[in-house]
Design brief:
It is a single chain. This protein is α+β, with helices and mostly antiparallel strands. The strands form 2 sheets. Strands 1, 2, 3, 4, 5 and 6 form a 6-stranded antiparallel beta sheet that branches. A 5-stranded mixed beta sheet has the order 7-8-9-11-10, with helices on one face. It has 10 helices and 11 strands. The protein is elongated. Helix 8 runs parallel beside helix 9. The chain folds into 3 domains: 115 residues, PAS domain (Beta-Lactamase); 80 residues, no CATH class; 143 residues, Heat Shock Protein 90 (2-Layer Sandwich). Bound molecules: adenosine-5'-triphosphate and magnesium ion (MG).
């Protein structure tokens, strides 16, 4: 229906406009030329956590993180001299601060207005970009995770197979030159053995990349196989307590894969770096999250922030953190030289359709 089709245009009263202002999902502030907040809507109250009494009559700088207040004040005064409708701080990543001190990313639009109630005012519309920033961080991490996977694979191929092929070439040449039949047979037996070893290596690598066990058997059973293999391959016993009940079958495949890979890497690290004969793994569900913990009482290490400085030497640790964050979870490592290591991932329980 179009209002112009013979219908009378509705006449809005001040109260109607007030209702529009109150209902806006964006936080809206009316600020005077001195930077004092004169009015605000309920979205602004819930965004910042202050009460109406606390905000009205206060300087707008109360909503700006302390480190940017001085600069904000200068910009505000310049704006009042030549006001025009425009976004604030174009090209900059703006942040605002809540009553509890937490800061968050925002987009702010400014618009000068001469209100009936007084002289010049600026209407500020503030949009919370927390969700948007999280999406952007996730997509950046996705790119990094893929890049790390590629680095990991190329290192694996280099260390495992290039070395092997180089050795094979040398042995093959020696075999051709060998005149003694018995020696030739002996040399061939060594080569055949090495080829068999390499084939097993390739299989292991494919398993590591795809994990058909996980796809076929589900998380709990694949973990049991992982713990058995750890004992066979590294001689390290895993004391496991996996209390996921029915939850594991109801999870989103991305969450299952993340949990499996994190435990796999943490267990491999404990088995290869900690110098222990056993390690403990605990998985449990609690209040909408799954907590996975891998603990060893081994040598520990000097922990650095592997995310602040993602490092080729920390692909395992960085990868674990990324995997947890990619599915909306968090990852921590508690360790120190001589103090053992505890790796912990907390990921939200998400169903196969992405619903909680
Ligand atoms: N449980 C642990 N006990 C002792 N040291 C550990 C443990 N976990 C990790 N480390 C130390 O942290 C370093 C980084 O671990 P990370 O898993 O990132 O790499 P990596 O295991 O050396 O190689 P990869 O990329 O194959 O995983 C290890 O080289 C080791 O020195
Ligand atoms: Mg590792």
């Amino acid at each position: 229906m179009r209002f112009s089709d013979g219908m009378e245009l509705p006449v809005f009263s001040d109260r109607d406009y007030r209702a529009v202002f109150e209902a806006s999902p964006d936080a809206t502030l009316v600020v005077d030329a001195e930077g004092v907040i004169r009015d605000l809507n309920p979205s602004a109250l819930s965004m910042f956590g202050w009460s109406r009494e606390e905000m009205e009559g206060s300087h707008v700088e109360m909503l700006v993180p302390a480190s940017s207040r001085g600069r904000h004040e200068q910009h505000r005064m310049r704006y009042v001299e030549a006001p025009s409708p425009r976004p604030m701080g174009q090209g900059l990543e703006l942040r605002a601060v809540r009553k509890d001190g937490r800061t968050f990313p925002v987009e702010i639009s400014l618009s000068p207005g001469k209100l009936a109630s007084g002289p010049e005012h600026v209407i500020c519309t503030i949009r919370d970009l927390t969700g948007w920033e999280r999406m952007r961080r996730l997509s950046r991490m996705k790119v990094m995770a893929a890049e790390n996977e590629r680095k990991h694979l190329s290192r694996e191929l280099h260390d495992e197979f290039l070395q092997f092929l180089v050795a094979l070439k040398i042995r093959g040449k020696l075999l051709v030159d060998e005149l003694d039949r018995k020696e030739r047979e002996r040399a061939w037996a060594v080569i055949a053995d090495q080829i068999l070893g390499a084939m097993q290596g390739v299989k292991q690598m494919i398993r590591g990349l795809r994990s058909p066990k996980l796809e076929r058997q589900g998380l709990v059973s694949a973990l049991a196989t992982l713990f058995r293999d750890t004992r066979k391959v590294h001689g390290v016993k895993i004391r496991a307590s996996v209390n996921l009940d029915w939850v594991a079958d109801e999870l989103d495949p991305a969450t299952i894969l993340a949990l499996y890979r994190i435990v796999q890497e943490a267990v491999t690290n404990a088995a290869t770096h900690a110098g222990v004969s056993e390690a403990a793994v605990k998985l449990r569900s609690e209040d909408g999250v799954i907590i996975a913990e891998v603990r060893d009482e081994g040598c520990g290490f000097e922990s650095t922030d592997s995310v602040a400085a993602p490092d080729e030497d920390n692909i395992g640790l960085t990868g674990m953190r990324e995997r947890a964050e990619l599915v909306g979870g968090s990852f921590t490592v508690r360790t120190a030289p001589g103090k053992g290591t505890t790796v912990r991932a907390v990921v939200p329980m998400v169903g196969p359709g992405g619903e909680p």
